[in-house]
């Protein structure tokens, strides 16, 4: 999906990944992230957000959710994280990363609220139900605290990804608020929905989903209840390009994830975006038959939109040898990838791909590198995945 744009905008990353693999410095099944470009992207995001008066929470699940990268991001301008689940928050907190939002997709369980309040200490908690609101409130009262919360609000026709259902129904929100506002351990300060942006069919820009209207209507209901709405969180594809779009709708908070590595869907089609593509997947040809070359896998993701791959025995060869992805099924475990066989292919060749990923649900390793566009590229951190 991103091979062409990465070749155009960050060729050195592809060359470096192949060379590190051939030198034995990284194994097959490793994502390689250009730390210099990632820092550039974070700086651009931070500066754009400041210009438009918006706050950002960084999302690390796409890039392996490590405290190492969390610290790098915080040092370059985005100071707090959004955790897709509580385990991500724990992982980031190991290196003292700051948690901005928890509960955004996966709600903490009923026995974990004390840890949320005393160890993770998020700026806000996203709530999907009045039951979770009461659990959190009770835990906060027991600790003598009041926790700021935002409510996820949806209506039936909104866009919601499978496996991410939940939230307060807009048509019943008035009644829910009557109940929630009685809880003494929480303070309702805002609203969220996801996703609020989707790439257009023409692939030339993003368009708002109906979820943004849900947020706007929910804000009216909140304010009619006397709630001072100070936090409107509208994630999906938060980037330098979309921050001004979000601001026009009164959004106060965004959550860049793929923009950190220049891999929102729009980055595959436009080379004028500020973020630079900064991640590739490195594999190796394991064996071949008459039609196909099979690659060591473990890092594929069903929604990756893989199309092409580069291959070769060194960084220079990889830049000029291309094939297509074949026989990829999301229904099976990715023990091997499959490429259309080419005459030049050899067992042991490096394979470089660039596609949409979620590293945290894979078995892949992560390597962070610097100086990829100079003569002395360096591997600076390796995140090895175990079980």
From TrEMBL:
<keyword id="KW-0663">Pyridoxal phosphate</keyword>
<dbReference type="InterPro" id="IPR001608">
    <property type="entry name" value="Ala_racemase_N"/>
</dbReference>
<dbReference type="InterPro" id="IPR048449">
    <property type="entry name" value="YhfX-like_C"/>
</dbReference>
<dbReference type="InterPro" id="IPR029066">
    <property type="entry name" value="PLP-binding_barrel"/>
</dbReference>
<dbReference type="GO" id="GO:0008784">
    <property type="term" value="F:alanine racemase activity"/>
</dbReference>
<dbReference type="Pfam" id="PF21279">
    <property type="entry name" value="YhfX-like_C"/>
</dbReference>
<dbReference type="GO" id="GO:0030170">
    <property type="term" value="F:pyridoxal phosphate binding"/>
</dbReference>
<dbReference type="Pfam" id="PF01168">
    <property type="entry name" value="Ala_racemase_N"/>
</dbReference>
<keyword id="KW-0413">Isomerase</keyword>
<dbReference type="InterPro" id="IPR000821">
    <property type="entry name" value="Ala_racemase"/>
</dbReference>
<protein>
    <submittedName>
        <fullName>Amino-acid racemase</fullName>
    </submittedName>
</protein>
<feature type="domain" description="YhfX-like C-terminal">
    <location>
        <begin position="280"/>
        <end position="379"/>
    </location>
</feature>
<dbReference type="GO" id="GO:0005829">
    <property type="term" value="C:cytosol"/>
</dbReference>
<feature type="domain" description="Alanine racemase N-terminal">
    <location>
        <begin position="33"/>
        <end position="265"/>
    </location>
</feature>
């Amino acid at each position: 999906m991103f091979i062409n744009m990465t070749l155009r905008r960050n060729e050195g990353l592809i060359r470096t990944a192949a060379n590190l693999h051939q030198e034995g410095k990284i194994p097959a099944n490793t994502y390689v992230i250009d730390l210099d470009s990632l820092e550039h992207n974070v700086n651009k995001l931070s500066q754009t957000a400041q210009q438009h008066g918006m706050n950002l929470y960084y999302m690390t699940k796409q890039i392996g959710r490590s405290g190492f990268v969390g610290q790098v991001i915080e040092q370059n301008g985005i100071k707090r994280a959004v955790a897709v689940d509580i385990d991500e928050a724990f992982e980031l907190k190991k290196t003292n990363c700051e948690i901005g939002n928890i509960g955004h997709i996966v709600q903490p369980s009923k026995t974990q609220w004390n840890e949320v309040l005393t160890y993770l200490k998020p700026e806000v908690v996203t709530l999907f139900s009045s039951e979770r609101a009461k659990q959190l409130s009770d835990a906060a009262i027991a600790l003598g605290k009041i926790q700021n919360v935002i409510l996820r609000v949806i209506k039936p026709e909104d866009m919601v990804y499978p496996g991410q259902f939940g939230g307060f129904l807009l048509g019943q929100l008035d009644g829910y608020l009557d109940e929630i506002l009685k809880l003494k351990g929480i303070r309702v300060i805002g609203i969220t929905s996801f996703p609020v942006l989707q790439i257009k069919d023409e692939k030339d820009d993003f368009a708002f989903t109906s979820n943004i209207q849900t947020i706007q209507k929910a804000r009216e209901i909140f304010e009619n209840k006397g709630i001072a709405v100070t936090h409107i969180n509208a994630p999906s594809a938060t980037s330098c390009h979309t921050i001004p779009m979000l601001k026009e709708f009164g959004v106060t908070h965004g959550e860049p994830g793929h923009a950190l590595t220049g891999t929102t869907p729009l980055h595959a089609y436009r080379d004028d975006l500020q973020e630079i593509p900064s991640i590739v997947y490195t594999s190796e040809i394991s064996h071949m038959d008459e039609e196909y070359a099979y690659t060591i896998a473990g890092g594929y993701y069903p929604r990756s939109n893989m199309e092409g791959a580069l291959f070769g025995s060194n960084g220079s060869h990889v830049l000029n040898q291309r094939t297509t992805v074949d026989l990829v099924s999301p229904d099976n475990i990715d023990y091997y990838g499959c490429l259309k066989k080419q005459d030049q292919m050899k067992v042991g060749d490096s394979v470089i791909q660039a596609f949409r990923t979620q590293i945290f649900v894979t078995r892949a390793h992560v390597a962070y590198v610097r100086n990829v566009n100079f003569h002395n590229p360096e591997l600076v951190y390796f995140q090895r995945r175990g079980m």
